[in-house]
Amino acid sequence: MKKILFCFLCFILTACDINTEKQLKPLSENAVILAFGDSLTYGVGTGKKTNYPAVLAKLSGHTVINKGVSGEKTKAGLKRLPKILDKYKPELMVLIHGGNDILKKMPSQNTIDNLTQMIKAAKQRNIQVVMLGVPSFKVLMLESAEFYKQIADSDKVPIDVDILPTIIGDAKLKSDTIHPNTKGYKMMAEAVYQLLQDQGALLNP
Questions:
Q1: Cβ(131)–Cβ(37) under 8 Å?
Q2: Residue 158 CB: number of other CB atoms within 10 A?
Q3: Could you give phi then psi for residue 174, rounded to 5 degrees?
Q4: What does the pLDDT average to over 121-146?
Q5: What is the band of 13 on the pLDDT scale with cuts at 50, 70, 90?
């Protein structure tokens, strides 16, 4: 009985170690971060110095390239991504895309395929990826569309599925029905920064 109990405790401790294992490698001192997406990345609803990539740059001390295109769907994003990756050679990409697919009621499998290919394009170039889930507007309580977590789990990509539903569900944090205001974008940046710290890309100050 004691042996069984000992083995069970070892299993629990091992599982805890796995769950706390960091998924990202530390960024180099001069690493470039690519913020890639649509209007949530571009910063509709705030200024150039207060969108989330600009705030993330201040928090992290790294150059953050803002490559958000307002109104873009994932099909177009996938088409333009490779040239951007090759031009800027980032060490890490923050991917926040798919909101326009959801709003336009595009087939979710198309969105999944496009996002998966974006991640693949980055990883083929040894670029690390993190994601934020975008809310689905089909439920009373806002939450990220289910496929974001599925993609993240399948491709082993760290993800925050809570921050955007929290922001978009609070009128005080929005500039319109779907975009954050300056305070909301600051919260986005802080969530990305925390995710990068928790997963090992950035050292805790």
A1: no
A2: 18
A3: -120, 150
A4: 89
A5: very low
Provide the pLDDT for residue 19: 43
Place of tokens 């977590």: 149
Could you read off the pLDDT of 81-104 as tens digits, one per residue? 999 999 999 999 999 999 999 999
Judged by DSSP in three states, 118 sits in helix
Residue 34 C-alpha from the chain's centroid:
11
β-bridge mates for residue 101, sequence order: none
Note whether 21 and 77 are within 8 A (CB).
Answer: no
CA pair distance 18, 9, nearest whole angstrom: 14
pLDDT for res 202: 96
Residue 1: is its pLDDT beyond 70? no
Residue 54 in tokens: 């600009």
CA 176, 70, 82, 154 torsion-angle sign: positive
Whether 126 and 65 have beta carbons less than 8 Å apart is answered as: no
Question: Cα–Cα distance between 64 and 55 in angstroms, integer?
Answer: 9
Q: For residue 84, give Cα distances in angstroms to 4, 27, 118, 122, 198.
A: 55, 19, 11, 10, 27
**Residue 13, burial from CB neighbour count under 10 angstroms (0-12, 13-18, 19+):** exposed
On the CB side of 122, CA atoms within 13 Å amount to 26
Q: Which domains does the chain show, CATH number per domain? A: 29-198 (3.40.50.1110)
